[in-house]
Amino acid sequence: MPPLNLAMRMLVTWCALFPLVVIVQFALSAVLEGWPTVLTTALTLAIVVPVAVAWAVPLASKLAARLLARRRKPTP
User: Fold this and answer.
1) With a threshold of 0.85, does the pTM exceed it?
2) Cβ-Cβ contacts under 8 Å for 56 (sequence gap 6 or more)
3) Number of domains in the chain
4) How confident is the model at residue 76 (pLDDT cuts 50, 70, 90)?
5) For residues 16 and 4, what is the distance between their CA atoms, to the nearest angstrom?
6) How far apart are CA 73 and CA 76, in angstroms?
7) Phi, psi of 35, deg, nearest 5
8) Which residue from 59, 27, 67, 19 is spatially nearest to 43, judged by alpha carbons?
9) Residue 13 falls inside a structural domain
10) Per-residue confidence band for 75, with pLDDT thresholds at 50, 70 and 90
11) Could you list the residue range(s) of the whole structural domain that residue 45 is in?
């Protein structure tokens, strides 16, 4: 499979990160109520970034590459 171009990598990364950020913020909203914005952002990133780098972005990239390869294949 050919590597994804820059625009596709950015789109895949955004699509992997956005749901993670929303889920983590929602899950922690009751606990972090009243915390300063900088601290809530730091905690959210401390959870999201390792998960995204180790699991979500690589998985999303593989899926996108497979879908693009399937679309590029000519059907006999």
Assistant:
1) no
2) 16, 17, 20
3) 1
4) low
5) 15
6) 9
7) -70, 150
8) 27
9) yes
10) low
11) 6-72
Amino acid (one-letter) located at 37: T
**Within a domain: 50:** yes
Q: Is residue 60 part of a domain?
A: yes
Give the model confidence (pLDDT) of 17-48 as tens digits: 999 999 999 999 999 999 999 999 999 999 99
Question: Are 61 and 4 spatial neighbours (Cβ–Cβ below 8 Å)?
Answer: yes
**Residue 14, Cα to own-chain centre: how many angstroms?**
5
- Check: CB of residue 1 under 8 Å from CB of residue 66: yes
pLDDT value, residue 2: 75
What's the rounded Cα separation, in Å, for the pair 37 and 30? 14
Is there a domain that residue 1 lies in? no
Q: Quick one: tokens of 47?
A: 């959870």
